[in-house]
Amino acid sequence: MIRFMLVGTATAALVAAVTLPQPAPAAQSFESEQATLELETVADGLEHPWGLAFLPDGRMLVTERPGRLRVVDRDGGVSEPVSGVPEVYASGQGGLLDVILGPDHAETKRIYFSYAEPGEGGAGTAVARARLDLDALALRDVEVIFRQQPKTRGGRHFGSRLVFKPDGTLFITIGDRAERERAQNLTINRAQVIRIRPDGGIPRDNPFVGVEGRLPEVWSYGHRNAQGAALHPDSQKLWIHEHAAQGGDEVNIPEAGKNYGWPTIHYGEDYGGGQFGEGTKKAGFEQPIYYWDPSIAPSGMDFYTSDKVPAWTGDLFVGALAFRMLVRLDVEQGRIIHEERLLEDVDERIRAVDQGPDGSLYLLTDAPDGRVLRLTPAPKEW
């Protein structure tokens, strides 16, 4: 979009001339273990983009953490903000976060999104659903279906990835809100994977339904701050990764009713050094299938199912904030057997990773002038 102020014919012409859209920068080329890759910018000018979802026509929904939802065209055009987004707590890690299409989107146009919701006591992760009116760029019939309780002060550890299971139930990751002393308390919402129905109801087969002193929406717990979640393409099991403190970021496969340790057991230490908890292993607590030490600060993840790079099929791709890279994890029979680090020279905080309908990997960069990036094998590899 061309924007200028009319301050005289000559000046207006000059401003218009210098603000015309410029050709997209040429794709950058990178070598990986299996292919030569090309990385190109699809769209830019996004303020701390966080979540990404593909619409049936190939356009994308992108959230911006300050509280805006935008539509990105296939050619990179960025819409004005979609109206109807609820008020968000845009502070620290809080704001408008993940977005996904509903399983019935084709019929209902419903989308689901997570955000830091302000309220009594501070803020907490909330999930809402709404009908997306693309013609009017508006959300209709907004309905909150989950609220993290109690709310608390501060802008840390909202978790917030959303994943639908094939049975139509919704997984939500929520962080400990930087209250590790409450992370094992199952009478409140802290450090958990939540499972609900699309209308916010509780599935009858959730592990703590009818159990005194346990919230029925909890699927698993002891997860410090999970900002990546995806279903394994074969097993259809949920995989997540979660931020540790200083060292010990984890990859887990959360199972119903199980405890993944935080903060009782973990593989890191406190910020600035110093141990806490009871070591790395203890009876009754699950072990991660993989961990990083030092911490890479993982965010966003997706399994690769495209045939564009056949050697990647079934592998897991993870964005990294602290180490500013993309990680490929070689997954074989439910185990991670190898790690490859990609795009380190790009030097961008990778917030989201999603495979697009074209089989390419799409990345969001977490920056005041954030970008949507597309990663594909170079043409000679196709």
Can you walk me through this structure?
Residues 1-26 form the signal peptide. InterPro entries: 6-blade_b-propeller_TolB-like, Glc/Sorbosone_DH, Quinoprot_gluc/sorb_DH_b-prop. Pfam families: GSDH (PF07995). Residues 46-374 form the Glucose/Sorbosone dehydrogenase domain. The protein has 382 residues and is mainly β. It has a single domain, classed as Neuraminidase (6 Propeller), CATH 2.120.10.30. The chain is 4% helix and 39% strand. The strands form six sheets. The protein has a five-stranded antiparallel beta sheet with strand order 1-2-24-23-22, with no helix packed on it. Strands 6-7-8-9 form a four-stranded antiparallel beta sheet. A four-stranded antiparallel beta sheet has the order 10-11-12-13, with no helix packed on it. Strand 7 (110-119) and strand 8 form a beta hairpin. The longest helix is centred in the first third of the chain and has 11 residues, at 9-19.
Write the layout of secondary structure elements.
Elements: H1 9-19, E1 28-31, E2 36-46, E3 49-54, E4 60-64, E5 68-72, E6 96-101, H2 105-108, E7 110-119, E8 122-133, E9 138-147, E10 162-164, E11 170-174, E12 192-196, E13 218-221, E14 226-231, E15 238-242, E16 249-252, E17 290-292, E18 298-303, E19 316-320, E20 325-332, E21 335-342, E22 350-355, E23 361-365, E24 370-377
Organism: Limimonas halophila
Signal peptide: 1-26
Pfam family, one: GSDH
